[in-house]
């Protein structure tokens, strides 16, 4: 389903004129399995890191690897003002668990963070490393698996459609009668 959406989108004339007008390299908009799975990986990896300007961090990966940039940017939007507190709190708790540290009561105020940044910094980034690596890797393999299974499903339906058509043509065609002995 997602492959078909990308195929329809790539045939869009408005998108083609935008690409030509702004001289956007087409490889950064390519919607094949490798480009999309890399984009999901990079976008989610950056999304779990507590830092400002995550979209710029995604763009900073452009010189080093090729990926679908719009998809990667959309993936980093998973961490937004509504989800950030929950994500970062879970990362802090996970990091504290891995390090065997006691957690402190968290208050969502700037003053509290300014006073306690030394206590929460290391557990937060240990949890961040865990979630960034594990969730982005899982999403990478999930996108690859779903993309491949979609291709296999399309190939099987084509084979079955051709097989049924040939078989039905055989059944409808007049048969020569066998000679009676």
Characterise the protein shown here.
There is one protein chain. The protein is mainly alpha-helical and 181 residues long. Helices cover 71% and strands 0% of the residues. The chain has helices at 2-10, 13-22, 33-47, 54-60, 69-76, 84-99, 110-172. The longest helix is centred in the C-terminal third of the chain and has 63 residues, at 110-172. The chain is elongated and about 60 Å long.
Instruction: Indicate the structural class.
Output: mainly alpha
Radius of gyration: 26 Å
Main pleated sheet: none
What's the average pLDDT? 82
Order of helices and strands: HHHHHHH
Descriptive terms for the model:
single chain; 181 residues; mainly alpha; 0% strand; elongated
Task: Compose a concise summary of this entry.
With 181 residues, the protein is mostly helical. The protein has seven helices and no strands.
Walk me through the topology.
Layout: H1 2-10, H2 13-22, H3 33-47, H4 54-60, H5 69-76, H6 84-99, H7 110-172
Helix pairs in contact: 3-4, 3-5, 3-7, 4-5, 6-7
């Amino acid at each position: 389903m997602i492959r078909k959406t990308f195929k329809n989108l790539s045939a869009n004339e408005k998108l083609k004129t935008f690409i030509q007008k702004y001289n956007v390299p087409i490889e950064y908009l390519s919607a094949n399995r490798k480009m999309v799975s890399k984009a999901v990986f990079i976008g989610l990896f950056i999304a779990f890191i507590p830092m400002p300007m995550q979209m710029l961090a995604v763009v900073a990966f452009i010189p080093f690897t090729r990926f679908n940039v719009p998809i990667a940017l959309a993936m980093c939007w998973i961490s937004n003002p509504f989800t950030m507190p929950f994500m970062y709190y879970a990362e802090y708790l996970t990091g504290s668990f891995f390090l065997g540290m006691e957690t402190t009561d968290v208050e969502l105020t700037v003053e509290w963070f300014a006073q306690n940044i030394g206590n929460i910094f290391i557990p937060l980034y240990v949890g961040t490393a865990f979630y960034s690596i594990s969730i982005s890797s899982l999403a990478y393999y999930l996108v690859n698996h779903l993309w491949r299974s979609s291709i296999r499903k399309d190939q099987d339906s084509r084979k079955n459609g051709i097989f049924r058509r040939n078989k039905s043509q055989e059944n409808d065609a007049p048969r020569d009668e066998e000679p009676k002995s």
